[in-house]
Design a protein that fits this description.
The structure is a single chain. The protein is of the alpha/beta class and about 280 residues long. The strands form 2 sheets. Strands 1-2-3-4-5-6-7 form a 7-stranded mixed beta sheet. The chain has a 7-stranded mixed beta sheet with strand order 8-9-10-11-12-13-14. It is globular and about 65 Å long. The two termini are about 20 Å apart. The structure holds zinc ion (2 copies). One zinc ion binds next to loops.
């Protein structure tokens, strides 16, 4: 790393390197280096600019504030203009914001902004496809799931040996069908409804979720109304998580690390079968 301008944590799971930082009202950014995508740009660690595609969950400042820096740095470093996906209703205002920075900075802001609606699917490579999911926050928001596409031998051919399969293939037979494996999902900011409305969040190999509140005395109705989740929301759904890894992020600044660990271990003593990782 040439410049260390922002803190990040890092974790590798199943061949995917998850890097990022996320505290509520401070900043949220993630990089999935192998998939060449960023999730949210509340801040931009210097070497995250090398990724040409960003997906933004919603336009709250702690998730979008570094957008001008991202676009401008890539131009300065002579990289291709980035492609940035964000909720459809935020595109025009984000574009205006970049034009305002153009006036202030006297530098061009070359990029493509593309609006996302829940259900939209974007090919991020031949192998991976991202789907936008409807989440529930105080402004328009989406979550994401990335599926890996794999070709699998059709069941009717599975008893055949190598030469027989090769012969069928040569004869032009369609011997495989596509299967999709949900490798990673990201909730962004959402109330529990966003989880419940999208069962895929419980099925992805890795889930990056927001867990903004952890103290028992914090009122759940108020938290949900403000579009966030509490550790008790995870406790109530603990039998539903089929994920291999559940990352809890976006913790409120009203707790220090010690308090977060204490409250979470009180609510979830077995840490969802050891699969829960606090991103703090
Ligand atoms: Zn946030
Ligand atoms: Zn938010």
């Amino acid at each position: 790393m040439l410049v260390n301008n922002a803190p990040i944590l890092s974790h590798v799971h199943d061949g995917l390197t998850i890097e990022g930082y996320s505290r509520a009202a401070v900043q949220t950014c993630w990089r999935l280096n192998e998939l060449k995508v960023l999730f949210d740009v509340g801040i931009q660690p210097w070497d995250f600019m090398g990724i040409p595609t960003a997906f933004i969950t919603h336009a709250h400042l702690d998730h979008i504030a570094a957008l001008p820096a991202y676009v401008s740095r890539r131009r300065m470093m002579k990289m291709d203009p980035p492609v940035i996906y964000l909720p459809d209703s935020a595109v025009d205002a984000a574009w205006d914001m970049l034009q305002t920075f153009k006036k202030l900075d006297r530098g061009a802001m070359p990029c493509e902004l593309i609006g996302l609606l829940p259900g939209d699917q974007i090919d991020i490579s031949r192998e991976y496809v991202l789907t936008a999911l409807p989440t529930t926050h105080t402004i328009d928001s989406v979550g994401f799931v990335i599926h890996q596409r794999r070709n699998k031998l059709k069941p009717e051919f599975q008893h055949l040996d190598g030469p027989q399969i090769k012969a069928l293939k040569l004869a032009g037979e369609e011997i495989t069908s596509e299967i999709r494996i949900p490798v990673i999902a990201y909730t962004g900011d959402t109330s529990p409804k966003g989880l419940d409305d999208n069962p895929i969040f419980f099925e992805a190999k890795t889930l990056i979720a927001e867990m903004t509140f952890v103290a028992p005395e914090h009122r759940k109705e108020k938290i949900h109304k403000h579009g966030h989740m509490h550790v008790d929301d995870f406790r109530k759904r603990q039998d539903r998580f089929q994920n291999e890894l559940i990352i809890a992020s976006h913790l409120s600044t009203r707790y220090n690390t010690h308090q977060v660990k204490k409250f979470v271990s009180q609510a979830l003593p077995d840490a969802l079968g050891g699969r829960l990782k606090l991103w703090i």
